[in-house]
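Aim 2 progress update. The chain analyzed this quarter is reproduced below.
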Amino acid sequence: MSDLTAADVRAELDAWLDENWDPDLTVADWWKRLAEGRWSSPAMPTEAGGRGYGRDLVAAVSTGLAEAGVVGPPTGLGSMLAAPTIAVHGTPDQVDRYVPEILDGSVAWCQLFSEPGAGSDLAALATRAVRDGDEYVVNGSKIWTSYGHRAKFGILIARTDPDVPKHEGISYFICPTDLPGLTMTPIVDATTTHSFNQVFFDDVRIPAANLVGNEGDGWRLA
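Predicted C-alpha cells:
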C-alpha cells in the first residue's frame, strides 16, 4: 500500500469507471456498484469493504469521481461516523452485519447523542442503559436527532455506570429505531421543515450484542 501513488489510484479508478459507470443506472444500483468496487469509502479498512487508503489517496479518489462527473458515493452519519467506528471497534459479526449496507447507501443512520439537559456535552448525558441478561434496558431522551425519522439505526451513547467520573461509564450502542418503547416527536422549524426529532426511550431493550467495544468506551468512540 505504501508504494501506491495518487497517479496509480487514478489510473485504476479511471479504468474501473470506464467499465462500470452507466448514467442510466439508478442511484441505488450505482451506489451498490461503487461499494462492490470498494470505491464507496476507500479510507475504510480492506476487511470492512474499503481500500485502507490514507488521506492523499482518498483525495485522489474523490477528485477522480468528481472529474468524471459520476454520482458520488453515499454520505451521511452512517458513512462518516458509524461505519468507521464499527470497522475499528466492532466485532466481526457487527462489521459484516452493518457496514456493507452503509457503504452501499441502502440504510440510513442517525446520531443519538444530544440531550435536553446536556446539549452536546456528552459528559453530562443522563440516558441510562442497564444490563439485564443478554440485553440493556434504556431509559431517557435525546434531542436534535437529524433525520431520525428516516434512519433505520442510530448511534446511541448512554450511561452504563453512574458511579464513576462523568467522562467514564458511557457506552456506545447500535440502536435500531423500530424497537418497542422508542418513540420520536418531530421538531418542526420556522420554515415548517421537519429535520429534527426528540427521541424517547421507555424501557427500550437493546441486545447486548449491539454494544460496540467495551462498556465505558463510548466517550472515546463518540
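Helices lie at 6-20, 27-36, 55-68, 77-89, 92-103, 218-221. The first strand starts at residue 109 and ends at 112. These observations will guide the mutagenesis experiments scheduled for the next reporting period.
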